[in-house]
Design goal:
Blueprint: E1 3-4, E2 17-20, H1 28-39, E3 43-47, H2 64-78, E4 79-80, E5 85-92, E6 95-102, E7 111-112, H3 116-120, E8 122-125, E9 128-131, H4 134-144, E10 153-159, H5 161-177, H6 182-186, H7 193-198, E11 202-205, E12 208-212, H8 213-218, E13 228-233, E14 241-247, H9 251-264, E15 268-273, E16 276-281, H10 285-298, E17 307-311, E18 315-321, H11 330-334, H12 343-351, H13 361-371, E19 378-381, E20 385-391, E21 400-403
Parallel strand pairs: 1-5, 2-3, 13-17, 15-21
Antiparallel strand pairs: 3-6, 4-7, 5-6, 8-9, 10-12, 11-12, 13-14, 15-16, 17-18, 18-20, 19-20
Length: 429
């Protein structure tokens, strides 16, 4: 007997839910959706619900159990790699529907055999199924191979020992600069070529050192889209620029440049502790730096766009190209879950004291904002990018807080170092 499920009212279609009034004669229509769900976070196709009116009409079939087997075999046989699914009969509003649960695939990318890779690979965008473009196909291929774009070898570009040692020295210099104490500085170890190889920043092939995309990004950075665009806007939308800058070069230097740009363009107040004054920014500096670092480490470098840092009258907005990695949700991120999209870059940033690798970044940001009297950050899944908004205080002027104490002491600000995650066309309008 079919199980009974309650969808009252019937939920609208989404990135994980699609309805079919009946089983299409052209089976390719629901196979496209099955492929899209497998290439994403999974989803359900429910046969027997009108996708326009959301009316439960049920499936009129003399032998629904045979139809269940047919759908299951069709999904398994028509797609490659084989898609894992579970097809079952369910009762909704006293009518029988067929629910096809498609599980997220472990071996992306998936496509329909008869259409081939070029025309048979689909992804889910909101409530629609779309043919994957070249950049998305490449991203899925990297994800399926369990390697990142940052560790991919740049063919024909070898590296001399001296060039590799120069990068080692540069990364160590940055690490020392980011140390908070003399003890931390003493614990910074020399970086060797073997370290870069183990982190897949370099690759040894035929007795030669080959550069990867991570080596490029941490060095001269010739990748067109690997930049950070910063801007200040008048008001709360992008109609009028006040100031704008574009930072290129080594991505670790871009972090500093973007961070300092934000500090120059937000309010600076003071916290008075006894007789001593401490300058305090309206947004905790650790939050600003953390978010910029997260954007650099976790962005999708295959996407045809830059990181964007925008300052409005009411908020700081940071946009990182690329959808959330498979299995990652904002709720999990808030709980400390972390999945590095670019592990080679993450290893280098960890060495440079820019991140930790325990997923503490976002929970720490939330706590720092609460302590500062600001609201929680707003997380926006743009499907092709991730945006985080930090809302500023409504006051036109920064608040000076005063603390009366019998024995004034010097209060020193000690922002901990943050922890961790074709040609560009979408510059600021």
């Amino acid at each position: 007997m079919p199980n009974t499920i309650d969808f009252s009212p019937v939920l609208p279609e989404s990135n994980i839910l699609e309805y079919k009034r009946q089983i299409p004669n052209e089976h390719i229509k629901f196979l496209k959706t099955a492929v899209a769900f497998a290439n994403g976070n999974g989803g359900k196709i429910i046969f027997g619900i009108d996708d326009e009116t959301l009316e439960v009409v049920g499936v009129n079939d003399e032998n629904p159990f045979k139809t269940v087997d047919l759908i299951s075999n069709m999904i398994y046989d028509s797609c490659t790699p084989p898609i894992m699914s579970e097809i079952s009969l369910q009762t909704m509003n006293e009518k029988t529907v067929i629910v096809a649960q498609i599980y997220p695939g472990e071996h992306t990318l998936y496509y329909i055999k008869s259409l081939g890779l070029d025309k048979g690979c689909f992804v889910r965008v909101s409530a629609t199924t779309r043919l994957a473009d070249d950049e998305t196909v490449r991203s899925l291929m990297f994800e399926g191979s369990k390697t990142g774009f940052d560790s991919a070898i740049q063919k024909g570009k070898n590296v001399t020992d001296d060039e590799a040692k120069t990068l080692c020295s540069s990364l160590k210099e940055t690490a020392l600069k980011n140390c908070m104490t003399e003890e931390q500085k003493r614990n910074v170890k020399d970086l060797s070529i073997s370290n870069l190889v183990s982190w897949q920043i370099l690759c040894e092939k035929d007795g030669k050192l080959c550069r990867t995309n991570a080596y490029d990004l941490l060095g001269t950075n010739s990748l067109w889209c690997a930049k950070i665009q910063c801007a200040v806007f008048k008001g709360t939308d992008r109609s009028v620029f006040i100031d704008r800058r574009e930072f290129s070069g080594a991505i670790q230097q871009q972090v500093d440049d973007a961070y300092n740009f934000v500090l120059r363009n937000i309010h600076l107040g003071a916290n008075i502790d006894g007789l001593y004054r401490q300058d305090v920014y309206e947004i905790p500096t650790a939050v600003i730096r953390e978010l910029i670092i997260n954007a650099v480490v976790h962005r999708n470098y295959l996407e045809n766009s830059h990181i964007q840092v925008a300052i409005f009258d009411d908020r700081l907005e940071i946009t990182s190209p690329g959808a959330l990695p498979k299995g990652v949700t904002f709720e999990r991120i808030k709980q400390g879950f972390s999945k590095a999209r670019n592990e080679s870059i993450a290893n280098a940033f960890h060495y440079m004291h820019l991140i930790e690798q325990w997923g503490t970044g976002i929970p720490r940001i939330v706590n720092l904002l609460k302590e500062a009297g600001l609201g929680e950050p707003e997380f926006i899944d743009m499907e092709i990018a991730v945006r985080i908004n930090i809302y500023r205080k409504n006051d036109d002027k920064p608040v000076i807080k005063q603390k009366i104490d019998d024995k004034p002491t010097i209060k020193q600000e000690t922002d901990d170092k943050p922890t961790i995650k074709k040609r560009c066309k979408n510059a600021y309008p």
